[in-house]
Amino acid sequence: MQALVILAHPAYNQSLANKTIIEELSNSHANLTIRHLDAIYPSYAIDVKAEQELLMTTSTIILQFPFYWYSCPASLKNWLDQVLTYNFAYGPEGTKLAGKRLILSLTIGGPAQAYHPLGYNHFSVSEFLRPFEQTAYLTQMQYCPPIYSHQMDYVPNLKNVKEQVIERAKQHAWQLLTVIQA
Ligand SMILES: Cc1cc2nc3c(=O)[nH]c(=O)nc-3n(C[C@H](O)[C@H](O)[C@H](O)COP(=O)(O)O)c2cc1C
């Protein structure tokens, strides 16, 4: 497996951006396993052993999600909380993730200029992603530059143009595939 894609999206049926990215990944020749957490674990009861075994079979872990309240959806936080256990991901024998690449791949509603000290979100996207970055360091993973796209929320006649969001999502997926295959 070239990469394991952990997808978190609680409203995937209504998704345009993440769905387009996942479709592009699925249609590519990359050897990927894609796991949609909300579909596999609707009640949040994670099969920790199965998840840990899958993690051990890949060298690249991709966390794919829409930016929710400056972080990830709850299903991904729940997965991190349950799967990255003591002596698996950290602790004296917790080296199972060491050396693996961690790539955050996220879609963001707000425009780039909002993620600036003078913008309405005040902080950069990288600053908001610090907990993920430090999680990679603690678990000895290689934190790769996150891949993210702005203005990805499509609301008919209100926010963004559908074709443009699809185009941005496709470019996002191609960028991700380039990194996966590097
Ligand atoms: C609960 C919720 C929280 C959100 N929080 C943010 C946020 O903190 N910052 C932001 O820029 N966009 C935020 N958004 C917008 C989403 O990031 C955006 O709709 C999503 O990336 C579009 O992807 P999709 O078409 O796959 O759903 C939020 C959306 C929802 C529903």
Features:
single chain, 182 residues, six-stranded parallel beta sheet, binds flavin mononucleotide
Descriptive report:
The protein is an alpha/beta fold. Helices cover 36% and strands 16% of the residues. The protein has helices spanning 17-27, 37-40, 48-56, 74-83, 125-128, 130-138, 162-180; strands spanning 3-7, 32-36, 60-66, 101-107, 142-143, 147-149. Strands 1, 2, 3, 4, 5 and 6 form a 6-stranded parallel β-sheet that branches. The radius of gyration is 16 Å and the shape is globular.
Question: How do you describe this structure in short?
Answer:
By secondary structure, the protein is α/β, with parallel strands linked by helices.
Helices and strands in order:
Blueprint: E1 3-7, H1 17-27, E2 32-36, H2 37-40, H3 48-56, E3 60-66, H4 74-83, E4 101-107, H5 125-128, H6 130-138, E5 142-143, E6 147-149, H7 162-180
Parallel strand pairs: 1-2, 1-3, 3-4, 4-5, 4-6
The structure holds flavin mononucleotide.
The site of flavin mononucleotide (FMN) has 16 residues, from helix 1.
Residues in helix, %: 25-40%
Rg from C-alpha positions? 16 Å
Q: In oligomeric terms, what are we looking at?
A: single chain
Fraction of residues in β-strands: 15-25%
Number of helices: 7
End-to-end distance: 14 Å
Average of the residue pLDDT scores: 97
Which class do the helix and strand fractions yield? Answer: alpha/beta
The biggest sheet amounts to: 6 strands, parallel
What general form does the structure show? Answer: globular
| Ligands bound to this protein structure | flavin mononucleotide
In the predicted model, the low-confidence regions spanning at least 5 consecutive residues are: none
Count of beta strands:
6
| Element string (H = helix, E = strand) | EHEHHEHEHHEEH
